[in-house]
Amino acid sequence: MMIYSEKAPAKINLTLDALHKREDGYHELEMIMTTIDLADRIDLVETDDGRIHMDSTSGLVPLDERNLAYRAASLLRERFGIRQGVRIFIHKKIPVAAGLAGGSSDAAATLRGLNRMWKLGLTLEELVKLGAELGSDVPYCVQMGTALAKGRGEILRPLPPPPPCWVVLAKPPHGISTADIFRRLDIDRISARPETEKMIEALSRSDYPAVCRLLGNVLEEVTLEMFPEVRRLKERIRRYGADGVLMSGSGPTVFGLVDRESRARRIVNALRGFCRQVFAVRMLGIPEELSARGG
Ligand code: C5P
């Protein structure tokens, strides 16, 4: 029995800007995302019953068509007339409904893995296109690394990785619906927008203080208003000594950038009493191991 394994890393947003609301109901976005050293693992095994089976170490992920990884397999089977089935096993490490693109990354890893298993010969670009049919963050998750995402999230431009540093993550107990947060966003009343171009320049110079200073996410106003405890958590991470603090995606996970591991560990320890899911991981920017393998 051959197992095809794929790593499905989490992302954080360094910036997230919503330019306007489109006719199709989605928002025109401009966001910079980067990969961190926190990943699920997807194991794929072929079955001959022509069905998609799912299993997970986490009780929090749905094991049917509500799961994006299931839909990824289903999309490839239909599009390419695949008769074989597959068993998808998700080893969950990324917090669920957290703003870290866990579900999207699982779907992207499923696309990459099934491309190998079913010998579809699809290029990364083709997989990115298919990803866009599944969800706005899936194209980026297919590509990974550091990127500027525009449009709904499907127009991608690779960027230089952030300077090496540590990321302290704190995930409040509740999950968040991205659709709900976008619905509550009043685009005409956004008080502060991230300076996306300046962040790109800071990445190009590998300027750590500038990266920390330029972190920005327009969805913060909405989520922090709805959940004051997320605001308090953010303030706490800054007070404990992070160099820059931001909420990722639509939240509720907040992260702090820290230049040294020892300091990151101290912040994690200090946060423990206030938040159960808190950890420190390395910033990756470029996941070497993943980019080396290709399609
Ligand atoms: O594409 P996806 O299903 O991941 O998006 C989830 C929800 O987030 C959408 O239903 C939409 O309400 C909102 N969204 C948006 N503009 C985007 C991406 C997502 O309004 N560019």
TrEMBL record:
It catalyses: 4-CDP-2-C-methyl-D-erythritol + ATP = 4-CDP-2-C-methyl-D-erythritol 2-phosphate + ADP + H(+). GO terms for biological process: isopentenyl diphosphate biosynthetic process, methylerythritol 4-phosphate pathway; terpenoid biosynthetic process. GO terms for molecular function: 4-(cytidine 5'-diphospho)-2-C-methyl-D-erythritol kinase activity; ATP binding. Residues 67-142 form the GHMP kinase N-terminal domain. SUPFAM superfamilies: GHMP Kinase, C-terminal domain, Ribosomal protein S5 domain 2-like. Pathway: Isoprenoid biosynthesis; isopentenyl diphosphate biosynthesis via DXP pathway; isopentenyl diphosphate from 1-deoxy-D-xylulose 5-phosphate: step 3/6. Signal peptide: none annotated. Its EC number is 2.7.1.148. Keywords: ATP-binding, Isoprene biosynthesis, Kinase, Nucleotide-binding, Transferase. The active site is at 11, 137. ATP binds at residues 95-105. Residues 199-275 form the GHMP kinase C-terminal domain. Belongs to the GHMP kinase family. IspE subfamily. Catalyzes the phosphorylation of the position 2 hydroxy group of 4-diphosphocytidyl-2C-methyl-D-erythritol. PANTHER family: 4-DIPHOSPHOCYTIDYL-2-C-METHYL-D-ERYTHRITOL KINASE, CHLOROPLASTIC. This is 4-diphosphocytidyl-2-C-methyl-D-erythritol kinase. It comes from Planifilum fimeticola. The gene is ispE.
